[in-house]
């Protein structure tokens, strides 16, 4: 039986990948983070290269207890299939209990077409907006030729033996609506708890990609919050209040307008609206951290991943604590 722990005590965050958006970059991997608590491993998001970055960080899947998906945009889930397909041979096989994966359920219906754009049709019209559990089932189906060969010829375990996937169920009374109320005022609620960590979630503003969650990890050593992708919203402050570390996305809002100078074009208007309402500007990231009273702000999910005129440190003009501009494989201790 393989061990389910790595060496070391305490809590630390490892930024596996720090680039936002569905682009392949040379200096930053896709968005993914690790939380290591007294040797147990927890993952937040699975952007491209997450499993390779885990190896570079000296971490192993044999220690993995649970994984958390903030939302189902491709840059946050591109490596999910590899969790099984490569994990079979790199630590998952032989674990005592299935790794629990938590993420959004279905939004219920496809989002409306952006104003001024023609009806494009649907991909997968029979199931156009699967939640995490259905997404994983579709992935296993897509890789069934490989999976069945590995199981029957290589003696690998069935995916259900290794991964237990859960759509997050919202508490009763939360006034969520995919179109009109994607992040209504609410209190955080617990989605996972074991002897090392309590993980709470809250809805955040990333419409039309909904539901979208932020997660808070409370441990004996301290607390850390991951914003996922979000525009400015009160729920983010509610979740992060009093946390020791806040890992928060940031977008260079000046870069957005340089990228789309012709706002008369419907596609340009849609992209500007998405980037400025479903993401958080550099100044606003600092303001969120200040309002929440966190000790350390870590900027992550940086858009653009490469900037000719980086402005990330301007967040410090709005936040009096410690500011870290995240880079791949940074390690951040979490303590009270």
From TrEMBL:
Domain Metallo-beta-lactamase: 184-301
UniProt GO molecular function: 3'-tRNA processing endoribonuclease activity
Gene3D superfamilies: Ribonuclease Z/Hydroxyacylglutathione hydrolase-like
Key words of the record: Endonuclease, Hydrolase, Nuclease
Protein name according to UniProt: Metallo-beta-lactamase domain-containing protein
């Amino acid at each position: 039986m393989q061990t389910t722990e790595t060496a070391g005590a305490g809590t630390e965050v490892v930024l596996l990948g720090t680039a936002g958006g569905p682009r392949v970059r040379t200096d930053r991997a896709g968005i993914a983070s690790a939380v290591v608590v007294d040797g147990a491993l927890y993952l937040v998001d699975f952007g491209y290269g997450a499993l390779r970055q885990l190896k570079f960080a000296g971490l192993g899947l044999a220690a993995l207890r649970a994984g958390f998906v903030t939302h189902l945009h491709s840059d946050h889930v591109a490596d999910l299939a590899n969790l099984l397909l490569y994990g079979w041979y790199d630590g998952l096989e032989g674990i005592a209990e299935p790794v629990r994966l938590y993420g959004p359920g279905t939004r219920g219906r496809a989002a409306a077409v952006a104003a001024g754009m023609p009806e494009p049709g649907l991909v997968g019209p029979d199931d156009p907006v699967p939640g995490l559990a259905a997404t994983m089932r579709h992935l296993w189906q897509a890789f069934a030729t490989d999976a069945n060969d590995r199981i029957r010829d290589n003696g690998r375990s069935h995916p259900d033996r290794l991964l237990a996937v859960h759509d997050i169920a919202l508490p009763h009374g939360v006034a969520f609506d995919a179109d009109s109320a994607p992040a209504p005022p609410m209190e955080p609620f617990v989605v996972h708890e074991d002897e090392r960590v309590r993980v709470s979630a809250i809805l955040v503003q990333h419409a039309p990609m909904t539901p979208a969650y932020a997660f808070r990890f409370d441990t004996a050593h301290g607390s850390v919050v991951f914003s996922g992708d979000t525009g400015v919203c009160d729920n983010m402050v509610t979740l992060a209040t009093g946390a020791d570390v806040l890992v928060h996305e940031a977008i260079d809002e000046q870069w957005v307008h340089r990228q789309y100078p012709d706002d008369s074009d419907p596609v340009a208007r849609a992209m500007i609206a998405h980037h400025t309402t479903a993401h958080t500007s550099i100044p606003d990231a600092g303001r969120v951290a200040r309002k929440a009273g966190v000790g350390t702000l870590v900027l992550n999910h940086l858009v653009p991943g490469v900037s000719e005129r980086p402005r990330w440190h301007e967040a410090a003009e709005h936040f009096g604590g410690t500011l870290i501009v995240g880079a791949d494989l940074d390690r951040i201790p979490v303590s009270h």
